[in-house]
Each structure stands twice: as structure tokens, then as C-alpha cells.
């Protein structure tokens, strides 16, 4: 049976300031902070997850806020642009919102679609695109109203040091379909309705440098643990080198780096973010895995306070 991912599971990036990140992704973009936890490998650092009302696969962007992080450089071997999809007819709302909140956004187009491009406080490049497909988010916050909220990922633009080989991995390993070419880009489609359109810049790019304002990895969806096992075998049979299975509490993961330098993860859809706290209150409390729970007091003292707050331009 051919292995085909339905699209992006999540995207993980580095930033510096945890509160500024919450203010932008929750306060400006209107996403839900669905999980507040720690970097399991560095418990002195938050791991923050933002997505739709439930943190569904295909909607979640996650961050490691390192206050002392160096500034990264976006380039080859990275996700260059993270694409969010908004409901059809909401483009003018978002343009007006960014203008009102003093956020610089520029217009662009690719494959016949209008794009609204901007940067987060650390320089991470994101863009908004209108599409009919994909369920609407039921999460609203501040000035982001029902029918206008970000649905989830539209896809991503991959910057590669070896784009032909990256394209080969997308087709031959991940099971995406090459559907279009335009200028410097080739477009691939996955089978799902969110996080399903991946554009690759076909011009080889000089390697980027990791740090604040760059994406660490892009994760692709596996249906469940059984499918995950098939994926690991499939990746290995195609000459790549996946890690052992890693328990990330809210999904299981494997990682491998493709030839163009981009770190790929394959993550399971279950168990999801409501496994350790009620769905209604997700994101309000710092959640720790069992092995860190005895150290909660010490960990909480070392982390800066955080709050989800309405953007100043949305306040009465």
C-alpha cells in the first residue's frame, strides 16, 4: 500500500519572547493557546502550542521561546514561509485588522492565489490565503470573529539546498502529488483539506542558520501508531534515517532530515491535547509530563509569567 500523508501535522519554530509570541499568535491572529508545557529536553524553556479550538492536526504551530537565543537566518534547509488559510471572503477583514493593529503586511500572489504576507515579532515569515476547503475554526478571540478565524495551515513554502531532491522526497516518500509549476515554485498537494499545499522554491538556496525567527521542523500526519510504524519502515526503505519512536505526550514522533536540509517529523494524530486536561480549559495551566511533576515548583519559578490577553487595538 502506498504511504500518503494527508498533510502538515504541526510546525515548530524558535522565538525569544514568550509573552510577545502569545500576544501575536493569540492576540493578533486569534489562535487558541491549546497547550502550555515545557521543552522536555530543556525544562527551563516553555513549549507553547497554538491552534484551533481543539488543537487539531493541521492547525498547530508550536514554539520554543529562548530569551537568549541568537537571531536566526531564514534560508535553505528550512520552512521559509508558513501559510495559514482563512475563510473565503475574509481577506479584507484581515487586511483591515493588520492595519488597525499597526502590523505591516504586503500583498503577493502565487499560483493564482492572493496572499497577505507578514512577520511575527521575531521575523518568522507567515502568510494568509483564502480557500473554501477545510473546516472553519470555532475559536474566536478578541477582534477575530466567527467566520473570519484562521482555519489552520494552508501549507508551507520550503526553502531547500537541493530542491530537486526535496521534491523527490515529497513525491516518492511522503506521497504528495506534483500539481503545478510557476516561476520559481513547484506545488505539491497532499490528500487532506488543511496543510495540504506545499510549495518548493526550485532555486537552490544557501543554508539558513537556526535561531529565533526560524522554523526548526515541519511535521507530517500519521493516522495512528500502526500507520506510524509503517511510515518508519517506509522512510528507512527509501534510504533515509528515521529516529526511534519518541513519545511527545500529545503525539508520537519520528524525525529525519531530507537531502535538502529540512528536518521532517512524522507525528501521530492521536492522542491529542485533551489527554491531560479538560478540553474547555486547555492552555490555562502549565502541564508537565509525569517525570517532571515532582519538580513543578522549581520549574514554575524559573519560567516567566504568561497571560493570553486581548490586543490593545481590540480593547474598548
Automatic annotation (TrEMBL):
Coiled-coil annotated residue ranges, if any: none
Stored CDD domains: PcpA_C_like (cd08347)
Keywords for this protein: Dioxygenase, Oxidoreductase
Stored Gene3D superfamilies: 2,3-Dihydroxybiphenyl 1,2-Dioxygenase, domain 1 (3.10.180.10)
UniProt keyword Mitochondrion, yes or no: no
Gene Ontology molecular-function annotations: dioxygenase activity
VOC domain mapped to chain residues: 7-131, 152-269
InterPro entries: Extradiol_RC_dioxygenase, Glyas_Bleomycin-R_OHBP_Dase, Glyas_Fos-R_dOase_dom, VOC_core
Protein name per Swiss-Prot or TrEMBL: Ring-cleaving dioxygenase
Species in which this protein is naturally found: Cohnella boryungensis
Classification lineage: Bacteria, Bacillati, Bacillota, Bacilli, Bacillales
